[in-house]
């Protein structure tokens, strides 16, 4: 899945090394990453990146958090393959595109002159980078990862759609709530830490 098309001009490289490098770059130099690494019409690397992040988070959660997934009454390896396959190969791609559609609608209201949908998909996918560690059952770490991801989403919207931080924050509020608050369980982590969330 990481090499199905030739590398387009200005897009991301393919392969495991490229995914690892993208993960480090988006965490260390996010503005530069979004400026150089998001290309029109090149969703594939962002989608694969997001799927890998979800796999890391959910595999860690499955291994370290007892009862995270329902017991199927089969061998543990089969149960793990079923649940992780379902989440990673079906739920994650569908969720990414659904959230990108919502994000696009929000941008239509607040940012009239904006970039394309494929770039929005990439921004959301790469903004999830910190959440590769969100499966560790430590509420403070999970909250840090999801808050960081939401901040990266806003920054990515600023850079890619050439808008203000205020507009980007308003446009990204609902997608960030869905993806980081509920999807990566940031709100649950906040609740575990005794931090009230009015949503």
TrEMBL record:
It is found in: Membrane. The keyword DNA-binding does not apply. It comes from Saliphagus infecundisoli. Pfam families: Yip1. It is a multi-pass membrane protein. The chain crosses the membrane at residues 44-64, 76-102, 140-160. This is YIP1 family protein. GO terms for cellular component: membrane. Residues 25-180 form the Yip1 domain. Its main location: membrane. Keywords: Membrane, Transmembrane, Transmembrane helix. The keyword Metal-binding does not apply.
């Amino acid at each position: 899945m990481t090499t199905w098309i030739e590398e387009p001009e200005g897009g991301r490289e393919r392969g495991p090394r490229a995914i690892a490098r993208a993960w480090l770059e988006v965490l260390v130099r996010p503005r530069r990453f979004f400026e150089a690494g998001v290309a029109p019409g090149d969703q594939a690397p962002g989608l694969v990146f997001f799927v890998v992040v979800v796999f890391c988070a959910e595999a860690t959660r499955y291994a370290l958090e007892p009862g995270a997934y329902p017991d199927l009454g089969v061998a543990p390896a089969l149960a793990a393959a079923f649940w992780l396959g379902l989440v990673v190969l079906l739920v994650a791609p569908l969720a990414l595109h659904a959230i990108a559609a919502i994000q696009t609608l929000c941008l239509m209201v607040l940012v009239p002159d904006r970039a394309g949908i494929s770039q929005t998909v990439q921004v959301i996918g790469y903004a999830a980078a910190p959440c590769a560690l969100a499966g560790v059952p430590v509420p403070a770490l999970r909250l840090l990862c999801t808050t960081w991801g939401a901040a990266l989403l806003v920054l990515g919207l600023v850079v890619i759609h050439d808008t203000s931080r205020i507009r980007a924050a308003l446009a990204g509020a609902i997608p960030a709530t869905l993806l980081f608050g509920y999807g990566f369980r940031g709100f649950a982590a906040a609740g575990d830490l005794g931090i009230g969330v009015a949503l």
